[in-house]
Known about the structure:
By secondary structure, the protein is an all-alpha fold. It has helices spanning about 5-25, 30-60, 75-80, 85-95.
Amino acid sequence: MDPATARMRLESLLDELDRSIGVLKEADPPDADRVQAVIDVESRHRVAVLAALRRLDDGAYGTCVDCGGLVPDGRLEARPEAARCVQCQSKRERRR
């Protein structure tokens, strides 16, 4: 994915997450624990997007943070904040 497209998609995703988190924080839901869980997930996603923007600025976007190999364009299309290639991400998830 070219850097301009990646930046546009990441910034759009960041705006969407910020709006969503803001709305959730202002709500007075009957199930506050569930809403807080969603806020936590979206906040972690936001951190991943910010990290991807830093990698883009550093010239490391599209390079796996674990093995140094390329993150396939298809993976970046699906998850522009992806920090790892499919193989390294699978290894990481198996360890959890």
